[in-house]
C-alpha cells in the first residue's frame, strides 16, 4: 500500500485500498473513512459491516468529534458512547468497540478512519492496534496533502453552518417546491399534449387512460401544494416519519413514471420487506429523480434496474444503469447544488444540477442516506437507505 501511494496512487480508490488493508491487518469487522467539513462530516468509503454506511452524514461538533478533530491521534470508544443514530445501527450489528484515527493535512484534521469490533472478537495488543491506526491516519493524510482526487467533499461545508441555517432552510424550501411541482406538471402536460395532438389516432381505451392519469396527477398536485404550504408554515426541517411499505410505495412510484421512463425501467423488487420509517409521499419524487438521472446519462439500449433489500437496521432501494458511469472523485460532487456530470467533461447534459442535491436533503431529513458508486461492468448505482420501521 505504501509503495502504491508513493508511486502516485491517489484519490478515493487509494483510500479504498487503504481501508481494506487496515481492516485485514486489525482483524476488524468493518472500517470506514470520513471527511470533515465545517460542522459535519460524511462517510466517503467503507468496508465490511460498515459498507452500507457510505454517504451517511454525521455531526462533527460532538465532544468525541471535537476530540478527534483536535489533532493527530487514535481514540477508542465504546459503542454506547457515540452518536445515537450511529449507536443504534452499529449495536444492531453486534459492534461494541471503535478505534478512530485522525488524518491531518496542512495543519488541519480533514477526516478520520474508524475501525469497529464485536464484543467477543479477539483483538491485537492495544499498542499494535494504535500503531496500525496511527500509520493508517498518516497515509490518509499523505493522500490529502497530494491533493489528487481529494478532498471528495470539496471546499464547501456538508451542510449549512448554524448561523446560516434559517437562510438555508428557506432556500431549500423554494428549491424543493419548484422541483417537486415540476414532476406532476410535466406528466400532466405530456398527457394533455398527447390528447391534443393525437386524439383521432387514439382508441377509446388510450384516451381514457390519459384522462385517468391527468386526473390522478392533478390530485397529487393538489396534495403536494397542501404539503408544501404546510412545510412553509411549519419549517422545512419539520418531518414526521411513519412506517410504510417500501415495496408497495416503489411499485406505485414506478407505475406513475412518465411513459418513456416506465419503458426503460426493469422492476425487480422482493415480495415483501420490513416497513421503512420515513415519508412515503417523498418516494415518488426520489425515484423519479433517480430514474430520470439514470436515463439522462445512459443510452436507450440498456434497461434501468430498480431493486430493493434489507439488512439488520435499514431497508434500501437501488437504481442501476449501464451509462457513462461516475468517477470515484465525483460520487460526492454529484450531490452538490448545480453540479452536472457529462461524458467525463465533454458533453453538457440538460438540467440545472439540483435533483440529486434535493434527493439527499429529502432523505437525510428522514434519518436516511443516499450514495452513488460505480457499477461493476460499467454504469452507476444510486442507493437510498431508510431506517426500518419495525425496530
Strand order of the largest sheet: 3-2-1-6-5-4
How many strand segments? 13
What is the overall shape? elongated
Just give the CATH class of the largest domain.
Alpha Beta
- What is the count of distinct domains? 3
Low-confidence stretches: 155-167, 344-352
Strand portion, in percent?
Answer: 15-25%
Helix-strand sequence: HHEEEHEHEEHHHEHHEEHEEHEE
Please describe the biggest sheet, giving its number of strands, its sense, and whether it closes into a barrel: 6 strands, antiparallel
Question: Would you identify the CATH H-level superfamily of the largest domain?
Answer: Histidine kinase-like ATPase, C-terminal domain
Average pLDDT over all residues: 82
Distance between the ends: 40 Å
At CATH level 3, the topology of the largest domain is Heat Shock Protein 90
Which value, in Å, is the CA radius of gyration?
A: 22 Å
| Fraction in helix | 40-55%
User: Could you say which structural class the secondary elements and strand pairing correspond to?
Assistant: alpha+beta
CATH architecture of the largest domain: 2-Layer Sandwich
Tally of helical segments: 11
Write a compact overview of the structure shown.
About 40% of the residues lie in helices and about 20% in strands.
Secondary structure elements and their pairing?
Layout (H helix, E strand, L loop, with lengths): L1 H5 L4 H16 L3 E7 L3 E9 L8 E3 L3 H7 L4 E5 L5 H9 L2 E11 L2 E11 L7 H21 L18 H34 L5 H31 L7 E3 L1 H10 L3 H6 E4 L7 E3 L3 H15 L7 E7 L3 E7 L34 H10 L4 E6 L5 E8 L4
Parallel strand pairs: 8-10
Antiparallel strand pairs: 1-2, 1-6, 2-3, 4-5, 5-6, 7-9, 10-11, 11-13, 12-13
Helix pairs in contact: 2-5, 6-7, 8-10, 10-11
Amino acid at each position: 500500500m505504501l509503495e502504491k501511494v508513493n508511486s502516485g496512487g491517489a484519490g478515493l480508490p487509494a483510500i479504498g485500498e487503504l481501508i481494506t488493508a487496515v481492516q485485514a491487518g486489525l482483524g476488524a469487522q468493518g472500517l470506514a473513512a470520513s471527511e470533515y467539513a465545517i460542522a459535519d462530516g460524511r462517510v466517503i468509503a467503507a468496508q465490511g459491516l460498515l459498507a452500507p454506511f457510505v454517504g451517511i452524514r454525521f455531526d462533527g461538533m460532538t465532544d468525541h468529534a471535537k476530540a478527534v478533530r483536535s489533532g493527530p491521534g487514535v481514540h477508542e470508544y465504546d459503542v454506547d458512547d457515540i452518536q445515537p443514530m450511529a449507536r443504534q445501527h452499529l449495536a444492531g450489528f453486534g459492534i461494541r468497540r471503535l478505534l478512530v484515527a485522525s488524518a491531518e493535512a496542512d495543519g488541519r484534521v480533514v477526516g478520520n478512519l474508524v475501525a469497529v469490533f464485536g464484543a467477543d472478537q479477539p483483538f491485537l495488543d492495544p499498542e499494535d492496534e494504535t500503531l496500525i491506526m496511527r500509520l493508517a491516519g498518516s497515509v490518509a493524510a499523505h493522500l490529502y496533502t497530494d491533493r489528487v482526487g481529494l478532498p471528495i467533499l470539496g471546499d464547501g461545508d456538508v451542510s449549512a453552518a448554524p448561523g446560516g441555517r434559517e437562510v438555508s432552510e428557506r432556500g431549500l424550501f423554494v428549491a424543493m417546491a419548484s422541483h417537486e411541482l415540476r414532476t406532476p406538471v410535466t406528466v400532466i402536460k405530456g398527457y394533455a399534449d398527447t390528447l391534443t395532438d393525437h386524439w383521432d389516432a387514439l382508441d377509446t381505451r388510450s384516451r381514457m387512460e390519459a384522462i385517468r392519469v391527468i386526473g390522478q396527477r392533478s390530485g397529487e398536485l393538489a396534495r403536494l401544494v397542501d404539503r408544501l404550504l404546510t412545510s412553509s408554515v411549519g419549517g422545512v426541517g419539520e418531518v414526521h416519519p411513519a412506517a410504510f411499505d417500501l415495496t408497495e410505495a416503489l411499485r406505485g412510484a414506478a407505475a406513475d413514471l412518465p411513459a418513456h421512463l416506465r419503458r426503460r425501467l426493469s422492476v425487480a423488487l422482493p415480495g415483501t420487506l420490513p416497513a421503512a420509517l420515513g415519508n412515503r409521499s417523498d418516494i415518488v419524487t426520489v425515484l423519479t429523480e433517480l430514474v430520470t438521472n439514470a436515463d439522462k446519462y445512459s443510452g436507450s439500449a440498456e434497461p434501468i434496474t430498480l431493486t430493493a433489500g434489507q439488512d439488520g437496521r435499514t431497508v434500501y432501494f437501488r437504481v442501476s444503469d449501464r451509462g457513462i458511469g461516475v468517477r470515484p472523485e465525483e460520487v460526492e460532487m454529484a450531490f452538490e447544488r448545480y453540479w452536472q456530470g457529462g461524458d467525463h467533461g465533454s458533453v453538457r447534459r440538460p438540467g440545472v444540477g439540483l435533483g440529486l442535491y434535493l434527493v439527499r436533503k429529502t432523505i437525510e431529513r428522514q434519518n436516511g442516506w443516499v450514495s452513488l458508486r460505480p457499477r461493476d461492468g460499467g454504469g452507476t448505482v444510486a442507493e437510498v437507505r431508510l431506517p426500518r420501521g419495525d425496530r
